[in-house]
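Example record for the data management plan.
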Amino acid sequence: MLTKAFIPYRGYYSTPFVRWQGTLANEHSIVLGANTSRRFFESRKWDPKKIDYVIVGSTVYQKQWFYSGPWASALMGAVGAPGLLVSQACSTSTFSIYQAGMGVETGMFGNCWTLLADRCSNGPHAVWPNPGGPGGQVIAEDWVMDNFGKDPWAGGAMIQTAENVGKEYGVTRDECDAVTLRRQDQYRDSLANDREFQKRYMFPVEVQVSRKKTILVEADEGVTTSTKEGLAGLRPILPNGVHTFGSQTYPADGNCGVLVTTREKAMEMSADPSIEIRIVSFGYARTRKGFMAAAVAPSAQMALEKAGVKTSDLGAVKTHNPFASNDVVMAKVMGLDLNGMNNFGSSLIFGHPQGPTGARLIIEGIEELAMEGGGYLLFSGCAAGDTAASLVIKVG
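Corresponding structural encoding:
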């Protein structure tokens, strides 16, 4: 359990998420993320030179990704800060924020900025020499699609893992469709009153479309509205499966930033010093191969045990749910209210840019609790390789 790692209220942002091959499709994720962080610092009147370490969380490599940490630090104005690259599939945000918290807890860091940035659009194509191949043929990989389509250990696609877990726990097609519609309704709540909830944390991203033209992307792009009848008419992705393209997420582009610091500095840099946000605990799990969604509940249980918190103590639960069955199974195993999870939406609805997905959900959970007067937040999500990670955060 951590006692010294805090997040200033509004010391974070998420850009809108944009469906892949959309407005952000040609933006370099590290450059865009660093420039967005710099603009965010300017909006908060923060001196970036006070940041002493930067953790960049990213999963889809871009040109010169090798330099991600120190490069991003310099671009955002934290020229003297070293930077570290963390790549942990869909757990990247969770692990990055917790690592920042550990750095503060041990006194290693004072102000650690976590930048989570990915672009699934126009995914890279890797080529390796293969001198022994027929005619010297190369070994090639589509970084995004090939890895979505096959786990080298389990041997199947990610959707297959969801179907495996769904079958084991008796998840039905009707349950998956119902979860999708419920999460869609919750997402609509974030759009009410001219996107009042989203504007609490969402920061526009600036895109240079030509030498003379710059545009601001201020809201999510590419969110699809489903109906009960429309979902019922879709075919399962896999034969006899319970998931359709309507009940799974989709790749997206975007970035998030979160400052992790000491209690004193958090109060100093907070938009409202009366709101205290503390990173409490971390949990992780790995299940048997081909059963990714089954890892979420044990990772959440570990985080709760380390925090000394019960499910009944939770004020908000947010999940990364690439497949609708994730939430159904987690709720069954942990005795959670399926319809009460993921207020204001989830990655099932607004998309999954990989690295920043968890950070946006954590930020939304913090804002939800700030509106409700505080409480404990549990964030949990699965990740490639049949793993999962969770965080408990206290908002007081």
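Summary line stored alongside the record: The domain at 158-195+279-391 is CATH 3.40.47.10 (Peroxisomal Thiolase; Chain A, domain 1).
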